[in-house]
Amino acid sequence: MSAHSAFVARLRRPHQLRRRLRGVETRTLIVLAAITVLFTVLDGMTQSWIAWFPLASLMVPLMLGSLLLGPRTLPWFVVFVMALLVVATSRQETISDVDAAAVGVYFLLGLIVLLVSFRLNRLGVAGLRGESMFVDLRDRILDQGGMPELPAGWQAESTLASASGTRFAGDFIVALSPVPERLEVVVVDVSGKGEQAGTRALMLSGALGGLLGALPPAEFLPAANDYLLRQAWEEGFATAVHVSFDLASGAYEVRTAGHPPALLRRADGSWAMLAGTGPVLGLIEGVEFDCAADVLGPGDTVLLYTDGMVEEARRDIELGTRRLAAETDMLVEAGEERLSRRLVTRLGSKDDDRAVVVIRRR
Questions:
Q1: Of the candidates 114, 175, 126, 136, which has an alpha carbon nearest to the alpha carbon of residue 304?
Q2: With CB atoms 3.0 to 4.6 Å apart as the test, which of 31, 101, 154, 226 could cross-link to 150 if both were Cys?
Q3: What's the pTM?
């Protein structure tokens, strides 16, 4: 195949996909319409059929249509079902008060589905396809928080939990290894909680993931700050902690943007705060971020976390940090391998998003 033919084929693929999806939706619409007509005919044949195919049976294809049809097709299908409901009702010999009330409820359900379809028309997808898009976006965020394969002697893990119990949160983690001897990790806390901050976290995680792999460590947080300022979001600020490891020597650099400081647990059990200070992202132009640098020795552990892990109502954040350190000591001494998961489960506020990254050198 020539280069020109290959280019033309790539251009045609999106159009072929759209035609295929439209074909599937058309077939689905025909099947649902046929089922609706069949139910209407059976309902009006004889009174003996009413027990098996009552007027309520017309709600089955209506509900299936709300899940399977797109926002452009669904309103017309709702009108079609409601018209057949009128036909089926008019063919009943007698209609009791209870039946009349039931018909009113069916029309109300149809109106609700119609209003929902108009609302979803803004998004362009509906039903199961819309849900699959959100699931894909959620999985992409979680994949960015997964730790890359590290060389022997290094271990890294992360855990994320949202305030609402869903997989969408205002906290997120981006971790990558742009070259084999480096590990870049950033933990971000977007303003807001749960689903309220989920949309901003979706957009920001993709942008920061691109910046993290493309820029030197010293330029990452300034670039992230500039990006947030350009968005001009009403609640556009975020806190972050960024750590860059040289996996060959163990040297690392930590920079913080209004975020709780990273914690270092040394092999002898002592603790230190790695506070590379800097302001919150998205508020001030042209800011600089101080760097805390050292070398991670064998047996040392670095903890990155969000404020949901150490901050609770009626408790000072310093006490929360001490409790996090004490819990980590207990788990390390007990030989626990999944530190981040156990810490998120045991500590922090269940009313706030929580994220923990644990990086250890053996």
A1: 175
A2: 154
A3: 0.69
